[in-house]
Design brief:
Blueprint lengths: L1 E4 L5 E4 L15 E5 L9 H4 L16 E4 L6 H9 L3 E2 L7 H8 L4 E5 L2 H9 L3 E5 L20 E5 L8 H20 L9
Parallel strand pairs: 3-4, 3-6, 4-5, 6-7, 7-8
Antiparallel strand pairs: 1-2
Length: about 190
């Protein structure tokens, strides 16, 4: 087992077999994104958003985005190209491969999917977008996860099930995080 020590002194572990090989992700500041869950989940429409709803994030200077989404439509593939997002879909099948890719990222931005939990198990700084009526595991309020200390939770307003306000908050935090990351590489920055 691989043990990882992170800045807050907690230990996380995830067994990523040494035999797992994936591409080396090369960029100064690497951010993985996942914007929708499985279509077979009955509450998927509430927890998912369109890739285009995240588009205001993709212009932030100094950030390289990697898609952790699987599967993606042909339309989404075209959007990834338009937004200069690197598509990791061909490498994602299997949790060990996904974990090996997530482990190389500096930040993960995701809706409530398995990606959020893989990132949490790795101790990655993760920002999780939650719908107004999110799954019970995320509780009903607060920005911190009781399961993953390095997660920040971005919640839709209960009265307005719109993602715009959530994405705007993420945009502000991402701009700050990216500039801080350049100054303090390898020091986790948590938001409370």
């Amino acid at each position: 087992m691989v043990h990882l020590r992170i800045g807050n002194g907690l230990e996380y572990y995830l067994n990523i077999p040494e035999s797992v090989t994936v591409s080396k992700l090369t960029a100064d500041f690497k951010v993985g994104i996942a914007w929708k869950g499985s279509v077979t989940f009955k509450g998927n429409k509430k927890r998912s958003l369109k890739l285009s709803e995240l588009s205001t994030l993709f212009g932030i200077k100094g950030v390289t985005f990697y898609s952790l989404q699987m599967p993606i439509t042909n339309e989404e593939k075209e959007q990834l190209d338009d937004y200069n997002i690197i598509n990791l879909e061909p490498e994602l099948p299997g949790y060990a491969r996904t974990a090996a890719l997530v482990d190389q990222l500096d930040l993960v931005i995701t809706v409530d999917t398995a990606i959020a939990h893989v990132a949490g198990a790795l101790g990655k700084v993760t920002w999780t977008l939650l719908s107004a009526n999110s799954d019970w595991r995320w509780l009903e309020f607060g920005e911190q996860s009781v399961w993953y200390p390095n997660h920040k939770l971005y919640r839709q307003d209960k009265k307005n099930s719109d993602w715009r306000e959530v994405v705007e908050k993420i945009k502000l935090d991402l701009s700050f995080f990216e500039s801080s990351f350049k100054r303090y590489t390898n020091v986790p920055i948590l938001f409370s």
